[in-house]
Amino acid sequence: MPPRSKIARLPPAVKDWLDKALVESNFSGYEALAAELRARGYDVSKTAVHHYGQEFEDRLHDLRIAHEQAKAVVSVVPDEEGAMNDALVRLVQDRLFKLLRSGDGKIDLAKVGRAIADLGRASIQQKKWQAEVRAKVEAAAQQVEAKCRAAGISPETLASITQDIYGIA
Fold this sequence. Notes:
This protein is mainly alpha-helical. It has helices spanning 12-24, 30-39, 46-76, 83-102, 109-150, 155-166.
């Protein structure tokens, strides 16, 4: 197994600086970035910075595309129920499970475990939020129903209002 890259071994603060500098320079100026790293006491070549920069730019590009596609999907198919998030959680869980089953020696079990725990918490929070919203809608519908009955509104009008509240119309 090859040794970890010098970029991967940089302290988090220095790596954060490099990431920001790469984005600000539009992924160019690798010689200057390598020189700045050397000035800060880190022996990193222009080639290493360039290799890291290209991988980082590719990941950033993929994230931007995914973000734009997600925005487009949500604008066409609103997701009040959180089904898209639920599907995403399931997809990530599936990928993590496949990663674990593959037996690939490069897997950091601590990170995978943390990711699984985070996904579980996210799923639980989403379900909790959905239950809270449903309870609020139910309470609002009951209040409107009681006020409508007290005001003598017809059952047909009441049914129409209830359907509007629940979004069933």
